[in-house]
Amino acid sequence: MDYAIETFSLTKVFSDWWGRDKVYAVNDLNLQVRYNEVFGLLGPNGSGKTTTMKILLGLLHPTKGKALVLGGLGSDPKINARIGFLPEESYLYRYLNARETLDFYGRLFGLPSKVRKMRIEALLDMVGLKAVASRPVGTFSKGMARRIGLAQAIINDPDLLILDEPTTGLDPIGTRQIKDLILNLAKRGKTVLLCSHLLADVEDVCDRIAILYGGKIQSEGKVKELLQQTEKRQITTGAISDTAVEQIKRIVKNEQADCVVTSPMDKLETFFIKAVAIAQRQELPTSGAVSTTQIGGFLAPEAPVEDILDKLVSAPTSQESAEPLTTEKVVPVETSDTKRDERLLQKLTEPAKPVETEPVVRDLGPKDKKPETKPVEHKAAQQEQTKKSIIDQLTGPVRDIGPKDPGPKYREGTGSNGAGRSSPKKENKGQTDKSQAGD
Amino acid sequence: MKIAAVFIILLLVLLPAMGFTVTGDDTLKGRLQTFVSYGLSLTSFLLCLLTIMVSIYSLTSDIKQKQIYTVITKPIRRFQLLLGKLLGIILLDVGLLVLFCGLIYAIVVYMPKYLGTDGEELTRAKNEFFTARAGLVPPEVDVHREVTETYNKLKKTGQLEQFFREFSQKKIIAELTKQKQLEKRAATVGRSLVWEFNNVKVVDPNLFIRFKYNVSLNPLDLQVHSRWVVGDLRQIRYATKIRTPIYSCTRKDLIRTFYEIEVPADAVAKDGYLAVEFINLPLNNTVVIFPLADGLEVLYKADTFTGNFIRAAILILLRLIFLACLGILASTFLSFPVAILLCLVVFFTAAVSGFVIESFKYISENISGVYAYAIEPIIQLLPQFDKFNPTKFLVSARLLSWPLLAKVAAIMVCIKAVLLLLLGLLIFSYKEIAKIVV
């Protein structure tokens, strides 16, 4: 079987000045990442994660062994054209502004100017830095720089995305966005290699993980298999009466098992996003990233915050037929791509102004957690929808996520912590189905 | 790079200031020469420093601040990255050079009007500064036979053993040759010296005879009386009909100082023959010697000042390109401070390359083996900034010809700089970009 990333007893030894072996950063590593897989590389500091990535990208030469990326060497420009890389910190040219930075990287990929322009605008929108796009990135905070770093990593629509600690320095919304993005890319048949020690993040998005220690794989496998507690069951219900709880308890007792009943807690992440959304609604000034609005901007204004993010995670629906999830490679940027992007820009440029000034979550009160309304088809909503589709086309082709589509790659972004449960999803049945399946 | 801005502002302020304050020897020509000399030297020097710094900083900072991680993992090859940096630096240099040389040129052209000079001083400046003259040097006289004779005589009489025991044969011969050649360029009192030139092609109405005297005994007023005859002297020698005019003049000139005699160009015969005769007048009480290198020259206008100035600027650019390649090579394997140090050492050594080459040649007599295989190749790789100094040409209004420029370009850039660059590319292609972090 072909692998997106494959290493053969990869070894990297750092020698001291006299040429004596000092440290085995990577030791006889055999790593296999399949196509269309989100693979997490975990391990404590100094366990060889970053070194492995650098070898894969040709930034370091292996002492022994071999590393293949997309069937070739990581130093080959043809392979590089299909890789997106986000290093452990976003190393940017301080004096370029955000737009110029993205333009620079777009040029390095040899993207035609039209495509470049469109993608830059869409990406700036996506990472929420459109308002500060003409500020030098040297003045950006770490999280904002990280967002630009992420944007440059996906500007070429890569087949393989290598992310080194992508969520460091990001606010919870940014973290969530990155996780959503990873899932989105995976759904489009892309491969993602993720390296992090934020275990919660890895757990949320990865199909398979490997835990490194001392440059060797200590444990490897599917997240679900590794983590599932087969001897326990969990039932989540709506707000049922105490009598019903008593009844359930009795049934469980009959099965000779223990039973604990509590109300589920909101995840801190969810709570945070809500708080920011409220501040955003009051139009408080900020010099930082305005991700909340922008994320909201992709969706209908009536949708609650939680749904906004969930929807982003799940990718929107459209008329296009579902694309089978295969391991086939995605065609690099070509004329058809150009046309697609052109179409998008046209759409993007038309409604841009009025939409941005309108707070997206205006109608949403802080207590209004479960709005029963459905998206209203007014003009602003349509414009937002258009914008959203542009972003989606960049981060993932628009396709149907209906109940028929089992979406093997898909998991709910909120993961096993079950935050998704706290708010019901009205407008997307398939998503709800799957979030439960995922749990 | 704020340092670039500092350099640019410094030059923008200094050049005009210099233009209006230089005095030289208080003549227009003196002022022009002083200004061009200092202005161009300063520009060249600062741009050289700037080129070294920018070329090194560009790559080392990318590596140190790790921006190179995201650049080199894009679909470009490593040599493209280096060539891109080089191209950027060269473009910057071209831009700055055009700016500053344009400024110098404008000031130089404007200076006569600003000072309001006219008449003789202006004519002199036009003839001896605002021009590009080619020079004809009298061919070396073959003294081989005489030298051999003298050497054998000395050997026979045993004087060699007696006086020159510590000298090698080669050195004695060289010394004798020099002595004999000087003899050919010395005139005792009342005697004359004649130099003959063939293939003189003069377009301009005038040609110039540039000379400098050395004497065996200093006259009291340090001046030499002389009579010069210029023209087709064959007409006198063979007593034929005079077809081309013969000019003559009597002069009194200071010793060890350059002078120029202006002669109408029609003195040159149709076949390009020209003879120059110097007569050591009996008023003198000394032997007059014309030094070997620059004792006598026939100068004629070959190009305009503007053309020469442009070529001088290109000569500076060639220098900068070499330094840019050197800087890039250094930055592929050294850190910023070390690379700067290395490049500055090379730069200053190249600025005095004549001295360095001579010194090593002198030492090499004792360590010829080591010299030939170890030191010489390195010295050969050094560019000779002092030998091809653009101000030298402009100050003396000497023609800096295209062929000479092409030669410098071929040696300094096409061979030496490209060699350095290739070495840099090779190192960079196999280098581990990432820092070792565990």
> What spatial order of strands do you see in the largest sheet of chain A?
6-7-8-4-9-10
Total number of beta strands of chain A: 10
The level-1 CATH class of the largest domain in chain A: Alpha Beta
* Rg from alpha-carbon coordinates of chain A: 23 Å
Account of the protein in words:
The complex is a heterodimer of chains A (439) and B (438). Chain A is built from 16 helices and ten strands. Chain A is an alpha/beta fold. In chain A, helix 6 (172-187) packs parallel to helix 12. The longest helix of chain A is centred in the C-terminal third of the chain and has 17 residues, at 379-395. Chain A is globular and about 70 Å long. Mean pLDDT of chain A is 72; it is low at 292-335, 351-377 and 397-439. Chain B is α+β, with helices and mostly antiparallel strands. Chain B has two domains: 2-131 and 305-430, no CATH class; 186-300, Jelly Rolls, CATH 2.60.120. In chain B, 58% of the residues lie in helices and 14% in strands. In chain B, the strands form three sheets. Chain B has a four-stranded antiparallel sheet. A four-stranded antiparallel sheet of chain B has the order 3-9-6-7, with no helix packed on it. Chain B has a three-stranded antiparallel sheet with strand order 2-10-5. In chain B, helix 10 (305-333) runs parallel beside helix 15 (402-430).
